[in-house]
Write the structure tokens for this entry.
Amino acid sequence: MKGRSYGVDFYKVLALSRTASAEEVKSAYHRALIAHHPDKNTSKPPTIHIATIKEAYEVLSSPALRALYDRRHQQKAGATGPRPAQSVSLEEFEEDPIDETVWTYPCRCGARYHITEDDMENGIHIAGCSGCSELVWVGFEPAKDD
Ligand SMILES: [Zn+2]
């Protein structure tokens, strides 16, 4: 994901809500391309570059990239963003017996929530379930350097 402008809110770029469907993403992309096309918008400098619109579409039209993007941005979205169903202390998670950098917690669907040590180092508190779309907020102290 190096070099991608993940600081930009792709939903705002395409004027979409966070629950927009794939169809809506597609039509918003075409709308944004027309609205911000340099040839059709000569009276004022473009506020959004075509490259940003294309990047927004590339990410939001791919379920995998969109899920990753949403996850990275949930932290910043705060109270207005999608809310995890519940919060669980990391102490209630269990270390994965195979991969010790992964911690899991049982979901009511029978699968488990996963959070990795990488996530935690990056300040990500959201654990997704591998069996359904549920999320939990994972409570832990931020890692300290000393
Ligand atoms: Zn689940």
About this structure: DSSP finds five helices and six strands in the chain. Residues 22-36 form the longest helix (15 residues).
